[in-house]
Amino acid sequence: MKYGLFCPVAKAAELLCERWTLLILRELLHGTCKYSELQRGLSRISPSLLAKRLRELEQAELLYRQRIDGGKGYEYFLTESGRAVGPLVVMLGHWGLYWARAQIADEELDPELLLWDIQRRLDDSYFPGGKAVLKFQFNDVPVFPNWWLMANGSERDLCTEDPGRDVNVYFSGSARTLIEVWGGTLPLEEARTQRGLKIVGDRQLVNTLPRWFLLSSLATTPSALRPQAAVTF
Hints:
The protein is of the alpha+beta class and 233 residues long. Helices cover 39% and strands 17% of the residues. A hairpin with a 2-residue loop joins strand 4 (146-152) and strand 5.
């Protein structure tokens, strides 16, 4: 996409506003570096388009790749200019939480994306021996409504088939409700008392849930999302 203009906004848009580009950068900013992990965090991107966008970002010198030691394939890392996009991604995320959250359609309620974000924000120091199995049952997701999230130290695994392990905490309710809790726009207690979110299981883990079930890195209070003074260009 070329605008043919010297305007810095136009030049930045040429690099960043292709479909999926900012979301790929979001994953890399979170520390995702393997191709398979990028696919998991961007479950609706095709492999061919992901490979194309990674090549484009490498050519634009926003990222670089290096071979995996002792393995096949590459890992991807941001350059200085790629890391500098971080504050922009955070600002866009806050804008989206405040202004665009009402625009989420039912077909956009992606439990895999939600749980992929949740798994990297769990504080496993509260889990017995650093291990826990969480089960999520979504009543508004027609395909794959049941998910298991297994944590074992720094290792995480998501699956849609019963792994045959004891579950420590069960979550049951709508994906939309948990997404709003995760984004910090719906208080947990309100979700439980007014929106039907059920959380049961190990008493200690349920009672300490706000300590280990950390919200999105973009979650903030509504007052912090109020529009700021307009910027004059």
